[in-house]
Amino acid sequence: MWNIFRYYFLFFIFYSFLGWLMEVILIFFQDKKLVNRGFFIGPYCPIYGFGAILITYLLHYFIFSPILLFIFSVIICSLLEYSTSYILEKIFHARWWDYSHNKYNLNGRICLNTMIPFGLLGIIMVYFINPNILKIYNNFDNGVLNVITIIILIIVLADFIISITILIKIRKDSHLLAKDNTEEMSKKVIEKIKGYGILFKRIFMAFPNFRFKHIRRVIKEKTVNAKNKINNYVRKGNKNGKKDKK
Q1: Exposure letters 195-207 (e unless 16+ CB within 10 A, then b)
Q2: Which of 84, 111, 185, 195 could lock onto 99 through a cystine, CB 3.0 to 4.6 A?
Q3: Residue 179, helix vs strand vs coil
Q4: Number of CB atoms found within 10 A of residue 11's CB
């Protein structure tokens, strides 16, 4: 049981680190600055680790077909990203990333620009990276692997506790928008949270498209109200026009 956990845990950490590295490099080329991506303080993005495990565990039946592997990799990773976005929004009352400005997006949670790379990464992972990981893993002594696993596990658990504490604090401060949930107030709340320290400031650097849920709801309500007012005005105008004709 421990050997199985050890293998999948190190596998998870490797791909979480690889995903983090990929995002850091991508942001560097886009914005010309280094940003520590993800919720955690350490260099890993768990969503990539979970995605890698799901693809490896569920799609080994389709290793004979690169096309099917590509399609199902896209489906699995897109479902994972969408569900993660939805769950995080419900728990912390905030949208952490938003693809609404991209073409072919679904509720701003996933978009075609990220779905296709997921499929390509799935193929590269299954055909090229995984076999080499297994070779390297098998070359290590069990005692060494145990020590590495325990050390990394302790670090990740400590990181998890600290990061969750930070996110809970952000969630609590979001309630300041309950009475005044304007965009201006949202900015003030974010600046207040950043003032708690570098670890809080890092979160907003890692997620530049962060938005409190309250703000989006208010904007939506204002839009709906404005449309209703216009519709009511048009209806009244039509009624008055009909009366004048009579």
Answers
A1: eeeeebebbebbb
A2: 111
A3: coil
A4: 18
Scan for tokens 């969408």, then name that residue. 82
Q: Which residues have CB under 8 Å from 139's CB, separation 6+?
A: none
More confident residue, 70 or 227: 70
Tokens representing 96 are 């952490």
> What is the per-residue pLDDT across 208-228, written as a single tens digit (0 to 9) for each?
888 887 544 444 455 555 556
Long-range contacts of 136-144 (CB under 8 A, 24+ apart): 137/7, 137/10, 142/3
SS3 label, residue 191: helix
Residue 95 region by backbone torsions, left for phi larger than 0, else alpha for psi between -120 and 50, else beta: beta
CA angle (186 as vertex; 185, 191 as ends), nearest 5:
95
Q: Is the separation of the CB atoms in 96 and 210 below 8 Å?
A: yes
Instruction: Retrieve residue 10's tokens.
Output: 């190190």
Place of tokens 């070359």: 139
The rounded percent of the chain whose pLDDT value lies above 90 is: 50
Inter-residue long-range contacts of 230-234, CB under 8 Å, 24+ positions, other chains counted: none
Q: What is the pTM (predicted TM-score) of this model?
A: 0.81
Closest Cα to residue 212, out of 241, 170, 168?
170
